Task: structure prediction
Amino acid sequence: MADRLHAALAVLPERLGWHVALSACALALGLAIALPLGIAAARQPRLKWIALAAAGLVQTIPSLALLALFYPLLLLLSGLATRVLGHGFPALGFLPSLLALTLYSMLPILRNAAAGISGIDPAIVEAARGVGMTDRQRLWRVELPLAAPVIMAGARTAAVWTIGAATLSTPVGQTSLGDYIFSGLQTEDWVAVLVGCAASAGLALIVDGLLGLIEGGVARRDRRRLWAGGLGLALGLVAALTPLAVAALSQGRPAYVVGAKNFSEQYILAELMADRLEAEGASVQRRVNLGSAVAYRALAAGELDAYVDYSGTLWANVLHRQDNPGRQAVLDGLRIELKARDGVVLLGALGFENAYALAMRRDRAEQLGVRTLADLAEKAPSLTMGGDLEFFSRPEWAAVERAYGLRFKAKRQFQPTFMYRALASREADVISAFSSDGRIAADDLVLLADPKGALPPYDAVILVSPKRAGDRRLRAALGPLAGRIDVKAMQAANYAVDRDTGKRSAAEAARSLGRR
Amino acid sequence: MSAIVLDRVSKSYGDQTVLAETSLSIERGRFVALVGGSGAGKTTLLKLMNGLQSPSTGRVLIDGGDIAARPGPELRRGVGYVFQEIGLFPHMSVAQNIGITPTLLGWSAGEIAARVDALLDLVALPRAVADRAPSALSGGQRQRVGVARALAARPSILLMDEPFGALDPVTRVALADDVRALHERLSLTTVMVTHDVGEALLLADQVVVMAGGRVLAQASPRELLTGHPDPVVADLIAAPRRQAERLAELARG
Result:
């Protein structure tokens, strides 16, 4: 417990720093766009209607989806920029997070600016014209000062929303306080989840308090409050950003960026690769918790240098193949086609499979007499199927469903951690398990056989970005991992991270995996 | 020469006419009252004179020049305007309110401060109110600030829209007398909108009677009191005259 907390707090300055940098930039940009728009909207009823409807629509998009949508959009734009200008821009991390959060912050600012200005007593507005003010003078001397408290209240709401939503920038590869929450939820590290929530909530409360002070100062024309709030914000910003600046100055740009998707095995393998690169004297940045589709595209675009993916996933989702020619044929096919299509290098298979497999509790499977997916098809109409968050939308599921004619009573989606729990608590009868998951052995689950070969093989493979294709140091560091990790070793490492008691961090598990 | 000339002006919104075609000439130095019931078009007529509203047809001339040729803000800085709702800026002090037009005209801080003091004396307010917020003043004091603000940039024309409408009768009479005195002292051309016929007859040199967007009469108070051929005008004058006669009888005992 104490060492969990210690480990969590050790990375707090970096995560808090990025969280503050991201929120502050998004809020500043949101103000810069929404404030003039709100002022213009107060003068033109039609513009007001359109702007408020658009901002309201953005608000109804779940913030996680909004963040995720910006990645492919930016990737497309970056591709265009590369073609036109000769160089693109990073589509992962800060930029998509910034743009999504900016959009998200606009509604309260826009609404309050428009309402604050249109709410001013018409007699005052007419008096401003009557004494000879121009439109601009009326805005600066009368309307903005009078609407300032309302506008500040909007900025305050926007700040609290933005700080909360910034935790969702983790899946698009931006370090934030959300890293605690996403990783913690995955590895059942509740201390990390609590640290992430507390830090984010605390930050929101402090910023809200300081902006409240400024709002009060504006409303009561009290300079002292105004200064106290402004000074507090400025000092807080400097304090939060200092660790980032120090890190940037002392390290420079990292030589390599290693990626990971959003589950324990990926965290461990990313740490393992990073360790080996660092042993070669390289500096490494880790970008974890990436969405499955995000990771491959980021690699192809050169924003990641290496990460581990699975042959079946690449076969179905990247090459859109539905056949299953066998384990070696899939690997050979991928090696040729990924290189030809995207310039991505398949450096080697690690030596174990993390296959999608349908799993049941042993007692339940025996009671129903289910050993294979064909047996399952007969019992399925009375059973509940649990899948991880992406399983039911993956082509693998479509292939299994089609091959065996599976029709379940109900299908439910879970975060992987809760999926295994659902099996234990009988909220699900069958789940989409991963064959390298340590919990299969630990929970005494059976994997159902796939006699028709509907599910492709899932060899874990190291992928290398096009720009690192000929990088000797990277090949020297990661090449020797090929064929060195068997499924037992991976299961043990995964279980060390996922189990409830005696938990290890991903870095610790990677070190013991690397020592073998 | 006429200070203000309205040359066949009219004002309509869509197919609703608020002011039918009207021509009117106001001599320099006159105190003119525009009277009539609500919807008579008095305020519209007043706002045409400093460009707060533009005429749908016709021209407005100030000192012989068509105001359509001048930018509105510049025009309005040279014409004092007192609002019915007073319209003091709540986020500015009394001094800042009074000094706003000189500020817009780019006067120096010293000139403005001296002018504010002089205006406070002129409208009979203690200089101590200069740093107060408008909300700290009584209604009568506030409208005195409104008058001071209108006069700050030394205009030759003062337009007033129901300036005493929101005040109690005692305050009202005192302020009205002071405004009339200011009019003489500063040699202003003053146009005042009011619905109070008695007030108009007592203060103005000339009374313009309006109803339904039309000017029915333009005459001196004496001419109006001695009888006017238009029945609507005659009716309007009859009430205050009867009141005055009754008061005179009571006084004689």
Summary: The mean pLDDT of chain A is 88. The CA atoms of residues 349 and 461 of chain A lie 4 Å apart. The longest strand of chain A covers residues 345-353. Residues 256-352+457-514 of chain A form a domain with the D-Maltodextrin-Binding Protein; domain 2 fold (CATH 3.40.190.10).
